[in-house]
Design brief:
The chain has eleven helices and five strands; from the N terminus they run H-E-H-E-H-E-E-H-H-H-H-H-H-H-H-E. By secondary structure, the chain is of the alpha/beta class. Strand 2, helix 3 and strand 3 (95-101) form a beta-alpha-beta unit. The protein is flat, with a radius of gyration of 38 Å.
Length: 445
């Protein structure tokens, strides 16, 4: 009896594995846009680029967008899909799969063993964080797919021409000037007095030159210090006018008082030495930089306060309209969910929308003189979004661009409601590579 139980369990597991394999779609090209994220022109362009990448480097990259994975882990789905499609060379296992799950807000760059030497997990993470997720989070799905695909292409395009040209150092001939000297011709002074007089004149000349240069340097430093003091005084006056603005933070006023005290205590050096003047000039430069930085921060305070007021005024106009519209949206969503059995996600989104609307009502019915209009607008916008999300989550799978788990690969490839077929061109399809021992990078937005 125990033997029969294990036999049945083995048969059931085999059937489950076969059923899972049949759920995977059939590749129609390098770009397979089952979620209809890309426009036809963009899809065809990316498909052409990936075909060219295969011809140039031998690396095969597949881009797949899926409406939903129905809760299946994206990493295991990507490995199974890449292995069934045979992405990459059969001998090199150099395939890459860029997979996007729209409903679960997940993406993954799956790399086979042979492609990880260049597209490491660290590089895949960098592409995910810099090229893909920022665009997805901004709601621009097509831009994220384009940026991510071209970033992957760039990794392998640059490797083809990665060897830089060898440095060709050109030797520059150094010319030397031959100097003739009269060897053995000793010059003996005939008049020691004449020699001493000449030496004294030279020394006196150097002393006079030093005095003149010192005077010039001192005059230049004095002029520089005078000019900087004027600039600093003007900047302090400008800052003093700005801090009177009510939008300026108190800490800015304290910083200004400290700088004014420091500047008022500044004295010109009594010494004529160059080092003393340079020290004072550096001190003034430091004060000037600090005052300029303070003025910049004051302008930022004023600009930020002005923007907040503008946002509050805008929110003050929009909030009453949203308070009237959202009850209708809630009623519409409730009627939608009443049709059939609502999903858990749709129910959760509707509950969240009700709570957000109730909180907004309680805020609005109080004292509006100190009301945070921006926060209230955000709360109402979130309630509006959750109403729409509840309706979207309740859509039947056939209307949500999802392919049913009961559909076979043949029905997926023949259905016109799925991705447009961009084709493999002259390549004839993928090369039969596998994804065992590979890596990758997963992200959410």
């Amino acid at each position: 009896m125990l033997k029969t139980f294990f036999s049945n369990l083995l048969v059931a597991g085999s059937i489950a594995l076969c059923a899972h394999a049949e759920e995977l779609p059939k590749a129609t090209g390098f770009v397979n846009d089952y979620a209809h994220v890309l426009s036809p022109g963009v899809g065809a362009q990316l498909n052409s680029e990936l075909a060219g990448l295969k011809d140039k480097t031998g690396v095969e990259v597949a881009v797949v967008t899926i409406p939903t994975l129905h809760g299946e882990p994206i990493a295991s789905y990507a490995r199974n899909l890449g292995s069934q499609w045979g992405i990459g060379s059969e001998t090199k296992n150099n395939g890459i799969l860029f997979l996007v799950d729209i409903q679960e807000h997940e993406m993954r760059i799956q790399t086979a063993r042979g492609s990880r030497e260049q597209l490491t997990d660290e590089v895949a993470d960098e592409i995910r964080d810099k090229e893909i997720l920022p665009a997805f989070r901004a709601g621009n799905m097509q831009e994220g797919v384009i940026s991510g695909t071209r970033a992957i292409e760039h990794v392998f395009d640059s490797s083809v021409n990665a060897t830089p040209p060898k440095d060709q150092t050109t030797s520059i001939p150094i010319t030397t000037r031959e100097r003739t000297s009269n060897e053995g011709a000793d010059v003996e002074p005939q008049d020691w007095m004449y020699f001493c007089a000449t030496l004294g004149c030279v020394a006196l000349m150097f002393i006079l030159m030093w005095i003149i240069i010192l005077h010039i340097v001192r005059a230049q430093n004095r002029s520089y210090v005078r000019n900087v003091k004027t600039r600093v005084q003007n900047l302090l006056n400008e800052a003093a006018g700005l801090v009177r603005n009510p939008d300026t933070a108190e800490e800015r006023k304290t910083s200004l008082e400290t700088l004014q005290t420091h500047f008022s205590s500044f004295q010109n050096p009594s010494s004529a030495l160059k080092a003393s003047w340079e020290e004072k000039a550096n001190e003034l430069d430091t004060i000037e930089i600090q005052v300029m930085s303070l003025i910049s921060r004051i302008h930022q305070d004023i600009r930020r306060a002005t923007q907040e007021r503008e946002k509050a005024e805008k929110a003050k106009k929009e909030v009453p309209e949203l308070l009237k519209q959202i009850p209708e949206l809630l009623q519409k969503a409730e009627e939608k969910l009443a049709q059939g059995t609502p999903s858990k996600r749709a129910q959760a989104a509707l509950r969240k929308a009700r709570k957000q609307y109730a909180k907004a009502q309680s805020m609005y019915t109080g004292d509006t003189s100190s009301l945070n209009w921006i926060l209230l607008l955000i709360l109402l916008n979130n309630a509006q979004d959750n109403c729409a999300l509840a309706e979207q989550q309740h859509l039947p799978i056939s209307d949500d661009l999802s392919f049913s788990r009961s559909e076979s690969p043949s029905s997926l490839s023949d259905s016109t409601s799925l991705s447009p077929s961009f084709g493999f061109g002259d390549s004839g399809g993928f090369g039969g590579g596998g994804f065992d021992g590979g890596g990758g990078s997963t992200g959410n937005w």
